[in-house]
Amino acid sequence: MTALFALATSLLFGLADFGGGLLARRIPALTVVVVSQVIAVVVLGVIVAATGAWSEADARLWFAVAAGLVGPVAILAFYKALALGPMGVVSPLGSVGVAVPVGAGLALGERPGLLQIAGILVAVTGVVLAAGPQWRGAPVQRRAVLLTLVAAFGFGAVMTLISEASTTLTGLFLALFVQRVTNVVAGGTALYLSVRGGAPALPEEGGMAVVRSALPALAFVGLADVAANGTYAIAAQRGPVTVAAVLASLYPVVTALAARGVLSERLRGIQAAGAGLALIGTVLLASG
């Protein structure tokens, strides 16, 4: 069951990342985050009400609140990075965030093994190779790499926090609901401040009509993302966290394959090698 839920996490995260990055190319990324999360809140609110999950409320929900504050920052950074592209490089680099749950284990008394040390070295090498060919004369690509690393560690923090926010299925529904409400409040505040600062909330061409036409895709992105958080929490609770983390960290492969199949993206040899090393480093980090 751990493997099944963790692999489902990879599939859901990968498709959500691809869809969100694609939407952010024609709709402001912050608007994508807020609208998709509002839809998720509505659906989760219905589930919470139907299951009576409010009875599970306890101090653990503060983990969900913390995840809700970190989540919008990570999602926004990642969508902006995906919009800058290429997705086949950005998405694999995002997987290094698995170092956060591994680090949480270390803080609880675990000690790094040789595989974990090797994983750190391999992952860092992968980051350098994937970005290296574009360092000179391409400030946009430097920004994409920085945004991806911010997102990666944010995602790792969210995974760690949400897995601690509940111990039962109904409690998980409530934790995810609280997390998404916090996402909407934080993201909505950021969107308001952004608009006050002169940034557009709607596409320059098409405006609200573009957002309305994209509602099905926005709904999919929001629901797939929240479902992925849920399946990871279940996987981490039902089996070894290291196994869950390894299998859940494979989501960039889904995003990269989607980008290759839908967008026909092609990578330079050294970029592909760097992306591959980042994935290998992720697996070593989690399995060490």
What report would you give on this structure?
- This protein is mainly α.
- 79% of the residues lie in helices and 0% in strands.
- α5 (99-107) packs across α7.
- The radius of gyration is 18 Å and the shape is globular.
- The model is unreliable at 135-140 (pLDDT under 50).
Short description:
The chain is mostly helical.
Chain-averaged pLDDT: 82
How many E strands?
0
- Sequence of secondary-structure elements: HHHHHHHHHHHHH
Number of helices: 13
Structural class, by secondary structure, is mainly alpha
Outline type = globular
Radius of gyration from CA coordinates: 18 Å
Estimate the helix proportion, in percent: over 70%
| % residues in beta strands | under 5%
Low-pLDDT residue spans: 135-140
Quote the distance from N terminus to C terminus: 21 Å
* Main beta sheet: none
